[in-house]
Amino acid sequence: MLGFGLSIEPQLWALIFVMVRIGAAFVAAPVFGAVSLPVIVRVSLSGAIGVLVLAAHPVVPPPTVFAVTTFIAIAAEALVGFAMGFILQTAFAAPLIASELIGGSMGIGFASSIDPQNGRSSPALGQFMSIMLTLLFLSVDGHLVLVDMLVKSYDALPPGAAWMGPDRLKAIAFFGGYAFLAGLLLALPVGFLLLCLNIVVGMMSRAAPSLNLFSVGLPASLAVGVIALAIGFPAMGDYMLVIIREALGAAQTIVLG
């Protein structure tokens, strides 16, 4: 009996309690939190990992379901899961920031479509870079690292003592600044060339005021941007790996210490 006449198998209640942290991480994390991923798949993965957690850690759930302490414990578990997923999701915003900077300079900022990750409209260039970042994330087994951190988090932050301190919450907030820094560095090679092109076009407009800049500047910006992306994308891909490592390292530092 777990309160108010509710009778639940203790093992099932322990599994549901463990799935709160795992499910919260999957909701906030990239790849797992995509709107295209069915909810039943997400719940099934949470349950499968929850079984592994129960086999590796002696998790003791609250004895009563309908109690204030139980609701507080569930909120603490969800906070830890959301923190781990949110850090990774913040890092995945860097390609969108870079695409805004590059697309605005190239003149293709108006080209947008539905992003399969979040179901919202985003720049087409940003979708391309986000897909590449997702593929790199999967290629370096980032999803497995996330699952491993979830399992290890029950040692560092066991249920009942899972509240994250102000220092860790502050670190999460400051990590948001890294997304802007990473987006700027990701767009720097192409953005610098487009800036030089705009300076040249500006000098031409001063030297020949009768020149139609729209017929010259826009095609030139588009051509230079495409060529710069083709040349600089290998280096951008290498920096995307750095972004992934930084995000996984920040999640491990904040949650595991």
Write the layout of secondary structure elements.
Blueprint: H1 10-28, H2 39-56, H3 68-91, H4 94-106, E1 112-114, E2 121-123, H5 124-139, H6 142-156, H7 166-207, H8 213-256
How is the largest sheet built, in terms of strand order? 1-2
> Average pLDDT value?
80
Q: How many E-type strands?
A: 2
Query: Strand-residue fraction?
Result: under 5%
How many helix segments? 8
CA-based shape: elongated
End-to-end CA span: 37 Å
* Rg for CA atoms: 23 Å
* Helix and strand composition category: mainly alpha
Number of domains: 1
Helix content: over 70%
The H/E string reads HHHHEEHHHH
Low-confidence spans: pLDDT under 50, at least 5 residues?
A: none
Query: How is the biggest beta sheet arranged?
Result: 2 strands, antiparallel
Protein model, in words:
The chain is an all-alpha fold and 257 residues long. The chain has one domain. The protein has eight helices and two strands. It has helices spanning 10-28, 39-56, 68-91, 94-106, 124-139, 142-156, 166-207, 213-256, and strands at 112-114, 121-123. A two-stranded antiparallel ribbon has the order 1-2. A hairpin with a 6-residue loop joins β1 (112-114) and β2. α1 (10-28) packs across α2, α4 runs antiparallel to α8 (213-256) and α6 runs parallel beside α8. The longest helix has 44 residues, at 213-256. The chain is elongated, with a radius of gyration of 23 Å. The chain starts with 9 loop residues before the first helix and ends with a helix. The chain crosses the membrane at residues 12-32, 39-60, 66-88, 95-114, 126-151, 172-201, 213-235.
